[in-house]
Structure formats: structure tokens, C-alpha cells
Amino acid sequence: MGWKIFLHSVRMVLDNLDVALRISLGLYLVQVAMQVVVFNATSSLPADPVDMPEGGGMPFEALVLAVLALVTSLWIAVGWHRYALEGEEPAAFLPRWRGSELGSYVWKSIVIAFALGVVLAVVGGIAVSAAMAVPGLLGIVSFGLVGLISYLFFRVGLVLPAAAVGRPLTMRESWQATGDGDKAVLMLALIVIGAQVLISVPAMIDGNTSSVVSLIYSVVVNWFVTMIGVSILTTLYGHFIEGRPID
């Protein structure tokens, strides 16, 4: 079931690629700008940390871009949820502005991030402390923590597509709704982690994150990661909350 959910989410993007581009392309340019700023900043850093210029904090422009990139990514998510669940077509090359739904989406994203952050801090602190005593165990613990957070996010994250379509749903209700499919959600979390590892392989082989090719690869891959990630939440919501079948 977890594999079917993942494939369904990938097909959702590929089968509706034209709409996906119309919803996301204009807004994703903000994220591209942010990636270019980070790329220029990191590629211009000296190899020796001793030569680092003083006061080398994040420029104000980069901070503004980071905030805009976050808002536009959530705007993309709301637009894609609404298209997949409600059939709402984007207006030209931007999803329709839904201020109330976007505000709710932002707030619930913050709540989820805080809740998962608390879990990670508590469980992660205990697990890492224990792993430090056993050589080679730290990597396994780190992988396990990422899997745990991904699993928890998919269990409670259905509140986000619900917010996008203006329907009330609590984290408790999301958790209860996905209870019968907890094994599928766990498998889905492991698949997503595996996919992320595979995606990072070319960058690890190249070894030069300051190359233009690496930047282009990152821009393209991050777009697919964004759209497929939102599609996974949409698929989970459609199946567990609305009872839609998964092909």
C-alpha cells in the first residue's frame, strides 16, 4: 500500500504536468532565486575558514528571499491541493490567491513543525546519547530518527490539505484516520527516505556542489520533490479522509 501511495503521487504530477507547471512555475522562481543566492554565497567562500570575512552573516536580501520562498512554497501547496481535491484550475501561471486557506495552512504547518521538533528533541537526544557509546551506531540512529519524523508527519499532516480546502481537521483526527494504514504510512516514509538518498547520489558522485551543473540539478530536482511531497499528502488525505481509491 505504501508503494502504491508513492506511485499514485508521482503519477499525479506527471499526468498533470501542464497544470503542475501553471500552478508552481511563477512562484517557484522565488525559490530558484533563493537557491542562486545561496549558490553564489557558498561558491565565493574561501577554502580556508581562517580567511572568512568578518560579519559574514546572512544578508538582509537573502533573509527576505528565504521568507518569500517559504510563503510561495506553501502557496504552491495550497494551489495543488485544491486542484487535486477540488478541481480548481490555476489562474494563468499562478494558483488562485486563497488568503484564509493559506493563513490556516501556514499556522498548521508551524504547529506541526513545533510538535515534531519537540519529539525530535526528546527522542533524538536520548537516542543520540545512547548511540555515542557504540561506534558506527550514530548513522543508523540518524536514519531511524528521519524515518520516525517522516512517519509522524504523514500521520498528522492531513490537516494541511484539509486546511487548503477549508475543511476542519485536527491532528488527533488525522492520526485516528490513518490508524488502519499505519503500516502503509511507515512503508511510505521509508520509501520517501530511500528516494531522497537516490536523488542525492549524483551530487555525492560529482562532489562539487559549487558547479553550475549542480545548481541546475538542484533546481529541477527540488521542484519535483516539492510537487511529489505535496501530492503524497493529497493522496493520503483523499484516501483516508475522503475514501478515494488508490489506483
Automatic annotation (TrEMBL):
Task: State the source organism's domain of life.
Answer: Bacteria
| Alphabetic keyword roster | Membrane, Transmembrane, Transmembrane helix
Presence of the UniProt keyword Transmembrane in the record: yes
- Transmembrane spans: 21-42, 62-84, 105-134, 140-163, 184-205, 211-237
Task: List the protein's name.
Answer: Uncharacterized protein
Q: Which organism is it from?
A: Salipiger pallidus
